[in-house]
UniProtKB/TrEMBL annotation:
Keywords: Hydrolase. It comes from Streptosporangium lutulentum. It comes from the Bacteria. It holds the Pfam family Amidohydro_2. This is TIM-barrel fold metal-dependent hydrolase.
Amino acid sequence: MRRAESPTGAESLTRAIEAISLVDHHVHGAWADDVSRRQFEELITESDRPVPGWMTQFDSQVGFAVLRHCAPVLGLDPGPDPETYLARRAELGAEEVNRRLLTASGIGHFLVETGHRGDEILGPAQMAAVAGRPADEIVRLEPIAERVVAAGTDAAGFAGRFEEALWERSRTARGLKTVVAYRHGLDFDPRPPTPAEVTEAAGRWLRASDRSGTIRLDDPVLLRHLIWTGLERGLPLQFHIGLGDPDIDLRRSDPLLLRGLIELAEPREVPLLLLHCYPFHRHAGYLAHVYPNVYFDVGLGVNYTGARSVAVVAESLETAPFAKVLFSSDAWGPAELHHLGALLWRRAMIRVLSEFVAEGEWSENQAVRVATMIGAQNARRVYGLGEKV
């Protein structure tokens, strides 16, 4: 693993943080095939619009980070032009690129969410084979419900069929995830719907699906039902928060909107994981501060803020107890994003914690312990992974 930059005099702290075998508690698979320049640029942005011909996605924080930090892993000097970088990538081929970048990341365990275009990316077993590290699955709720409807059910039978399917699909999963922020927004009624409400809503969904020929779950009653069924399942439950593609209404993805659900779910003691959270990461930190069932990360925001990611990571350490903060990359597609998620997080932790130590606010032992908690131990506890052997 290439060493991250660190302030003078922080060598031992740098070595300790670089040695952490990270647990990426929310990640997707790496892209399995070779890509063109156009495809690569579309894969390093959250926009779903074509890249205009007068610009390039390489002229962005994440684009500069790829050229600066991923190029050496592929055998190039730091900061090549995009054409040179992509030519080297094509020369090596997707399999070798994935192997180099995933192994160089220092991620020791992947928790892979498979609900988004899973047939285009590596699954958990493939990620484990390429990286040489364990990988477990996080199961998304909404596709399970959509498959139940696609397989055939009536409104009255939907709730039972979904519960059966969820338990079967999650037999070996480490956690669940909901994208209610995309499908409706976080400003939903937090109470569990009644059986009659679920049946009525399922009927509406089935009729609408018959008319449109598409099966996409966006009914707020049924989304609530999925969440509460997931809570009954008892596995850690992840929520997409904040930054995402244009399918999300960012105004309605502030985690403060989840307060009612958090309080109603608190007696169940199921961990609620708030993912990404940028630009609402301070709100997420507050919720993790006041509610024992809430945890959060700043995963996606780290890659897309690049050289400014130190500030984002620093802000994630402000109010939340350190046992409530986790590491994730939320990488999907190019293995560059998996590698950068880890490298930029380590670099940020080294810089921020070195300052705390240099200023006499923290001891070095405290800094190493907190970095290890956030980088690995918290996720191992929350998801029942056990201690690394």
